[in-house]
Design brief:
Blueprint (H helix, E strand, L loop, with lengths): L3 E6 L11 H11 L3 E5 L8 H14 L2 E5 L11 H20 L4 E4 L9 H21 L5 E4 L11 H10 L6 E3 H8 L5 H15 L1 H5 L1 E5 L1 E5 L2 E6 L8 H10 L4 E5 L5 H17 L1
Parallel strand pairs: 1-2, 1-10, 2-3, 3-4, 4-5, 6-7, 7-10
Antiparallel strand pairs: 8-9
Helix pairs in contact: 1-2, 2-3, 3-4, 5-7, 7-9, 9-10
Bound molecules: zinc ion (ZN).
């Protein structure tokens, strides 16, 4: 994979109706974008036959895919049946995403539920190991990506995500720069973006930067972190500095736009990237 590829979280607004995954992929190609994240956030409703059709269209159009697992996952749940349900949901996401030809499945790892981060970490890693084993057994070749999260009640600081990915093979980070900015109230300058990317390189090696999965959007935030996503131009996210840091750190991979306007900001950041690349 060379450089960064840009796309949307879900089907672009300007896609042909009905807004199916296939119509979305075709619209991504028409717009000149390069990837799309399939949103299984309310459940994996796509079947195996449908996934194979999606894979065919994506290959034809030259569009890369990733998937987002259901929100109803918590690998630190205090009831064992909720852990089992979380494992099943992530395995099913990975299974269908892999049939779609996706290389990554993003998930929200957990809530602390009042536990210390260290205690939560233990249960999370123990709950995730069987998921990796099941994927290996089924020969599902997909990278699971715990996401950096925007609220202090959620597991997923940059450091926690790096630690989890370093300790469990088959995992790699989903770095959400808007979440990280909202959670810290900082992390919004060129220097800070670079230092986050360096942390990743130190913890996971250069290969991590060469196969990154990034989320971004504008964001509204307060004391409790993330409030809601905004369009870039309505927010304070220093996206030009972010793009410059990504270029300077030679980051490669997929960049998924989660702004409400989806394709507009995806195109804006792609154009920013292409313009900055010309100046390098
Ligand atoms: Zn997410």
């Amino acid at each position: 994979m060379a450089g960064l590829i840009f796309g949307t979280a879900g089907v672009p607004h300007s896609s042909k109706k009905p807004p199916t995954t296939i119509n979305g992929i075709k619209r991504i190609a028409e717009l000149g974008l390069g990837c799309m994240e399939i949103e299984f956030v309310r459940g994996v409703t796509m079947g195996e036959a449908g996934a194979r059709l999606v894979a065919g269209v994506a290959a034809e159009e030259g569009i890369k895919l990733s998937a987002h697992a259901p929100y109803y996952i918590n690998f630190n749940a205090h009831e064992p049946e909720k852990i089992t349900a979380s494992q099943d949901r992530l395995v099913q996401t990975a299974r269908i995403a892999s049939l779609c030809g996706a290389q990554s499945a993003v998930f929200h790892t957990a809530f602390y539920l009042g536990d210390s981060p260290e205690k939560a970490y233990e249960l999370i890693i123990n709950s995730l190991e069987p998921v990796i084993e099941r994927l290996e057994k089924e020969n599902i070749g997909i990278t699971l990506r715990p996401e950096v999260m925007g609220k202090p009640s959620q597991f997923g600081t940059v450091e926690e995500v790096i630690r989890l990915c370093a300790e469990l093979k088959g995992l790699a980070p989903c770095l959400d720069f808007a979440h990280w900015h909202a959670r810290t109230g900082a992390e919004n300058s060129y220097q800070e973006f670079v230092s986050t990317l360096k942390k990743l390189e130190d913890g996971l090696g250069k290969a991590a930067l060469e196969d990154m999965h990034i989320h971004f959007s504008g964001i509204h935030y307060g004391q409790k972190g993330e409030r809601k996503h905004l369009n870039l131009e309505e927010s304070d996210l220093q996206y030009r500095e972010l793009v410059k840091a990504l270029i300077d750190c030679k980051v490669e991979g997929l960049v998924i736009c989660e702004s409400p306007n989806l394709e507009e900001d995806a195109l804006l950041i792609q154009e920013t990237y292409n313009n900055l690349l010309k100046q390098v």
